[in-house]
Amino acid sequence: MSQKPIKSYKLNEGLADKAGLSPAQKEEITKIYDTLRQIFEVGATLDPEKEDDLTMIRKTVEVVEALEFKMQSLWGLPPNTTYHTWWNKHPLCTCPVEDSLSLEEKGESRRIMWDCPLHGAA
Q: For the chain, what is the domain count?
């Protein structure tokens, strides 16, 4: 299975300043970016064909979603999965990337592939 590359992300300082984020909020968001990268780096080494690895892979789904909600809170946004953007950046995720607004217009928050090791059928 081909994997997505793992990217580094940095806080958009201009947007953070415009949103009035405190230094502590900026630091927390930066830590979350680092945590997400670490989750994805470890996840890339796991084999979804092995039961123990698959359990760990699926646990990361919950962790990533919790981090997405935490980031929304830090940015002063209401919790809304429609605007989550990290859930399918995991290198093992095979779900399609689709614009959140496009999905929202269709009444959906995300598209899941049934054979995705993270989000699909167990």
A: 1
pTM for the model stands at 0.80
C-alpha to C-alpha distance for 88 and 40, rounded to whole angstroms: 11
pLDDT of 1 reads 53
Dihedral sign for Cα atoms in the order 69, 63, 35, 2: negative
The answer to whether residue 80 is domain-embedded is: yes
Please report which helix (H) or strand (E) contains residue 13, including its range: helix 13-18
Residue 2, domain member (yes or no): no
Beta carbons within 8 Å of 14's beta carbon, 6+ residues apart? none
Q: What angle do CA 60, 92, 47 make, to 5 degrees?
A: 85
Domain assignment present for residue 71? The answer is: yes
Give the span between the Cα atoms of 49 and 113, in whole angstroms: 17
Cβ-proximal residues to 122 (8 Å cutoff; 6+ apart), any chain: 58
> Which tens digits make up the pLDDT trace of 36-69?
999 989 988 999 889 899 889 888 888 999 999 9
Look up the domain containing 85 and give its range. Answer: 13-105
